[in-house]
Fold ATP-dependent 6-phosphofructokinase.
Amino acid sequence: MRWAEGGGAGIEMQEAKNEMWFEDTRITNLENQPFASPLRFAHGGGFVADGHHILYSLDAEGLVRMVREGGNPLGFEAAGPRERIHFAPSEVRAAIVTCGGLCPGLNDIIRSLVIELYHRYGVRRILGVPFGLQGLIGDYGYDFRELNPLVVERILDMGGTILGSSRGPQDFDRICDRLEKAEIHILFMVGGDGTLTAAHLLSGVVRKRGLDLAVVGIPKTIDNDIAVIERSFGFDTAVEEATRAIRSAHTEAVAYPNGIGMIRLMGRHSGFIAATAALAQQDANFVLIPEVPFELEGEMGLLASLERRLAERGHAVIVVAEGAGQNFFTDKEEAKDASGNRGLKDIGLFLKEAIEKYFALQGRAIAMKYIDPSYMIRSRPANAGDSVFCSFLARNAVHAAMAGKTDMLVGYVNGTFVHLPLALCAGKRRHVDPGGLLWQAVLETTGQGELCPA
C-alpha cells in the first residue's frame, strides 16, 4: 500500500502572539479512492472536496503581514463526506479505542462512530478495544467487543466509557501485529495529548509496514488545551459542573463569619476551566491559573489581598486550577504517571493550610470550606452542548477514515470542523493568554489585581 499527500502546500509560519509553529497542514491519504460513497443528500449540502480549505483564525494584522512577506493564508482541509472513498464498506473492519483519563462525552463519541459507520456507510464489523491500548496487546488477554447500534443505544446517559481506558505506553510493533491479525482497516483513537502522540507514532509504524490501515484521532481533553483546535469535547460540561461547585462554595462562605470557599478545578497546564467557570458563575473573588504566577506574601500577595477582602465583605471565594502555584513547592522530584505526565503537587491543600496558618497567627478565626469536584466532573455524562458537539466530531471522523485519510485528527478551528495532521497538534498545548480577553475579563470580574508583592 502506498500513501499520497493531500491537497495544499506545506506551510511554515509563526504567530508571534502565542509562538506556535505551523509546519505542514497537508493530510496523508491512503492511495486511491476507488469506491463511490454510499451517502446520499436530499436537501443540498453534500460532498466536500479535498481542496476546500478553512482559513485559520488570524487577526487582520497577522494576515496582512503574512501576505506582505510572501506567505499564503494558513488554511486547513475542511472536514466532511467525500464523494470517493478508499474502503469498500462491506469489507471494512473498524476498531475504536478510548485512552487516558475519563471525560464527559466519551460514550457520545463511541455511539456516534458506531451509528455513522453502521447506518450511513453500511459497515457491519465494528469492534471496541477494551481498556485503552492495553486491549491491543495480546498479553493482557482482553477480547474485542462487538459493537452495533443496539449495544450503544442507551449509553448517552452514562458517564465514563463503556470500553474502559488505561494509561501508559505500549509497543507499537505489537499493536500492529494485533491490528493486522484482526484484519482492522480503520482505528479510531480517542484521547488527549499522549494518545494523539501515540496515534502519530503508530501511524509511522503502520506506514513502514505498508498496511492498508487508517489511523484517525479524535481529540479529548477536558482542559480544552490541545494546540490549534478551539474546542474539545467535555469542556462545556466541565465548566457547567464547575459553576455548581463555585455556587456551593459561595453559599458556604456567606453562611459563616469570615467564610472562605475554595474550589480546586482541573487544569494541569492551562486554566481555561477555572477562568471560564469564574465568568459563568461570578461569585469568585480570586482565580489562580498556571499561566499567571502569583505570590502569597507581600502587600499585594494573595494572603494580604484575601485579608482585605474579608475585612470589606466578610467572605471570599477562591478558584484554583490544579497546575497553578507549582513554584511554591521545593521538592524537585518529579513523579510521573503511567502516561508520562508530570506529577503535580496539591496546590489546593497547600493554599488551604497556608491560609489557615496565616489567619491563625493573627488570632483571627475563619471558616474555610475546601471543595475538589474533579472526579465528579470527569465522570459526568456530557451535557446537551457537548453531546451535539461529539456527534459532529465523530461523524466527521468516520467520513475522513472511510476516505482513507490517516495520521490525522478531526478538530474545530475558526468555527468549522477541519482535518489536521497529528504531528501539528501532538505534544503541543494551548494556554490562556494573560494579555487576552479571557483573562482580562476574569480580572475585571474578580477585582483581584495581579497578586504580586508590593
